[in-house]
């Protein structure tokens, strides 16, 4: 299964699309019952589809879940949790043998419904076209993920080779998740350590040399700032965002800047200072190059 980030990238699903979908939330919430009526009347009129809903309790539960799915299309929160929810829909459908065709037709009904709502409620033709493209993208992404997870679930059930491959992948995924946990705990520990360093520097500022104290405290504050940036990057990565290696290079850069500031104050040998300045130049150049590449991608 492709990652959610890759899928969004392939559909060119941008922050602008997210904003447009959120802007439709109130309008679509108002019409959610009509959308569900359109979907459910088709399901109940189609003999094979209706056969899944003979039990009233089950029908109520699943129809309710579909309404939540519809509302979530305009929630603006399209993170890994959202992705996993879609995967589960495909898996559940596969387990009870809901033909993928029914899902395709259901999304077609919702798509037609949304087009009608936009046509009647949005006057500006350009704005309407932009909104429609965003709706098309999110519906296609939904269908793509649900169908792919359906096919994967089918393969998992029937192919022994796929089962072995899948067991390996899920083991690696679990391992990588636990490593992420170790990483986040280490980052918390290190950030607390930097807070300690900052407090220590501030104490020195009060008790010792003022000039030295201010520079050291400034240096550790700089490191604390990048540590926070580092944690934010890791959190964004865990939520399915892009990984920014530049933040790690940033940590190295500010650490050496701090060292240089302290070395200058301590009147270290000139060679040491030259060595530190050369290191800042090299890391600074690498930082700039990586940042440029990240901005392009
Ligand atoms: C836009 C279309 C659809 C969406 C968003 C959707 C969503 C869902 C969700 C979220 C669940 C899980 C409910 C839960 O237990 O929490 C579910 C289960 C189910 N859906 Fe759909 N569904 C759609 C279309 C259909 C259609 C057309 C059929 C039948 C023809 C169908 C049949 C079922 C059945 C039988 C289950 C229960 C599976 C089980 O017992 O594990 N769904 N669906």
What integer is the average pLDDT?
A: 89
- Can you tell me the CATH class of the largest domain? Mainly Alpha
Measured distance between first and last alpha carbons: 22 Å
CATH topology of the largest domain: the name is Globin-like
Question: What percentage of amino acids are in beta strands?
Answer: under 5%
CATH superfamily of the largest domain: Globins
Bound compounds, each kind once, are:
protoporphyrin IX containing FE
Describe it for me?
The structure is a single chain. With 297 residues, the chain is mainly α. The chain folds into two domains: 4-158, Globin-like; 176-296. It is 85% helix and 0% strand. α11 (210-238) runs antiparallel to α12. It is elongated and about 85 Å long. Protoporphyrin IX containing FE (HEM) is lined by residues 43, 49, 52, 62, 65-66, 69, 89, 92-93, 95-96, 98, 102-103, 106-107, 110.
Give a brief outline of the structure.
This protein is an all-alpha fold and 297 residues long. The protein is built from 13 helices and no strands.
What is the topological layout?
Elements: H1 4-10, H2 15-23, H3 25-30, H4 32-45, H5 47-50, H6 56-72, H7 80-95, H8 100-121, H9 125-158, H10 160-207, H11 210-238, H12 246-265, H13 270-296
Bound molecules: protoporphyrin IX containing FE.
Name the descriptors.
297 residues, mainly alpha, Globin-like, 13 helices, 85% helix, elongated, binds protoporphyrin IX containing FE
